[in-house]
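Before the break, one more example. Copy the sequence into your notebook; we will annotate it together after we see the structure.
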Amino acid sequence: MGEHKNIRLKLARVQKDLSQEQLADAVGVTRQTIGLIEAGNYNPTIRLCIAICRVLGTTLNDIFWEEEE
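Here is what the structure looks like once it is written out:
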């Protein structure tokens, strides 16, 4: 793990002017969880992915879909 950093999540969070802690509070997880997702070291549940997308005003495809290489 760790080879697929979630840059799109970080960019969407920063565009909404949210810290990791603020996003974590909004979706009911710890700041460390958001940091791990952004670093590519944690695979969130679909429920958490949906909650994150709702807070950020994005879709699952925008944040979590990985293009095949």
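The helical segments are 7-15, 20-27, 31-39, 46-56, 60-64. The radius of gyration is 11 Å. Try to locate both features in your own notes.
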